[in-house]
């Protein structure tokens, strides 16, 4: 069996080399499978903004966009290829342990490992970006309330803003001074460069301020929402971490029951691992752990402000 698996791996590698498959080509092909070519009807829905995309496609696009914004767009291809390789590894492991019930569980679990790693890395980056966004909006708003000129307010504070937000505001300043004098158009362009609802609300308020300067007093309460979200997340972090630790402790207890069963009763152990009902039970337990892990990650992530 092991020789057959090794032979299959080498056969797959030989096929990839023969057809000249590259990581970029594999990534493009997988994206096309998830989102096939749009028809004219689909393109019309895209223009109207009412076409529902596949959830997996949205997740991949969000990861790709986040990596591009951090200057690591090439890692998206590596993540996809690593996921494909680990998917195959999960299939091979299930064959080696002779449990086909665990094949879908191990394959999906192994394939998700690169995405869990990259999302954890991006979550740390997003946290730093939100903290910097709070600082940048606060100092720009203070200057704007004093001078009534958003371009001048950005220019005065651009040196105090850290990347990647510095490049965003530098682009706004350049568009508002060198490209066009239409401040509203530059603000609309600025609005789409940061994916944050509070930032979009702040820019919308700035656009209204171009027609009514008395509305500039409403900018600080909008900026304060960033601080409120940060404070709430800080208060919830301990509670969420405790919930995650309890969940992983329960998962460890379930998994450790297998070697414990070997020490308590070897007949039960062999029944669990080598009989068909026992293999089905292992597959069911693995499926439950996989599904609950996804829900745990979803419900214990930091809260976000939604308009």
Provide tags for this entry:
13 helices; 307 residues
Structure description:
The structure is a single chain. The chain is built from 13 helices and no strands. It starts with a helix and ends in an 8-residue tail after the last helix. It is mainly α and 307 residues long. It has helices spanning 2-18, 23-34, 40-48, 55-69, 74-96, 103-147, 150-157, 165-179, 183-191, 197-209, 219-264, 266-274, 276-299.
Write a brief structural summary.
With 307 residues, the protein is an all-alpha fold. The chain is 80% helix and 0% strand.
Any chance you could write out the topology, listing elements then pairs?
Layout: H1 2-18, H2 23-34, H3 40-48, H4 55-69, H5 74-96, H6 103-147, H7 150-157, H8 165-179, H9 183-191, H10 197-209, H11 219-264, H12 266-274, H13 276-299
């Amino acid at each position: 069996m092991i020789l057959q698996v090794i032979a299959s791996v080498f056969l797959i590698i030989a096929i990839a080399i023969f057809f000249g498959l590259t990581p970029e080509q594999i990534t493009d092909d997988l994206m096309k499978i998830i989102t096939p070519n749009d028809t004219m009807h689909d393109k019309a829905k895209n223009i109207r903004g009412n076409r529902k995309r596949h959830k997996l496609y949205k997740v991949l696009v969000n990861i790709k966009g986040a990596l591009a914004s951090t200057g690591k767009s090439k890692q998206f291809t590596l993540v996809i290829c690593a996921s494909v390789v680990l998917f195959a590894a999960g299939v091979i492991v299930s064959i080696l342990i002779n449990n086909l019930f665990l094949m879908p569980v191990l394959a999906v679990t192994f394939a998700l490992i690169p995405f869990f790693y990259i999302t954890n890395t991006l979550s740390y980056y997003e946290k730093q970006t939100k903290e910097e966004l709070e600082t940048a909006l606060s100092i720009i708003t203070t200057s704007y309330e004093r001078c009534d000129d958003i371009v001048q307010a950005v220019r005065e504070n651009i040196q105090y803003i850290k990347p990647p937000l510095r490049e965003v505001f530098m682009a706004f300043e350049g568009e508002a001074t060198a490209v066009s004098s239409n401040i509203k158009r530059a603000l609309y362009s600025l609005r789409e460069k940061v994916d944050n609802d509070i930032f979009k609300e702040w820019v919308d308020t700035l656009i209204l301020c171009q027609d009514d300067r008395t509305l500039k007093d409403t900018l600080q309460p909008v900026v304060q929402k960033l601080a409120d979200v940060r404070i709430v997340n800080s208060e919830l972090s301990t509670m969420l971490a405790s919930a995650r630790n309890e969940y992983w402790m329960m998962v460890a207890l379930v998994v450790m029951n297998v070697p414990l069963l070997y020490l308590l009763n070897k007949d039960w152990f062999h029944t669990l691992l080598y009989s068909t009902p026992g293999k089905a039970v292992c597959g069911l337990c693995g499926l439950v752990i996989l599904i609950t892990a996804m829900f745990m990650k979803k419900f214990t992530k930091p809260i976000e402000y939604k308009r």
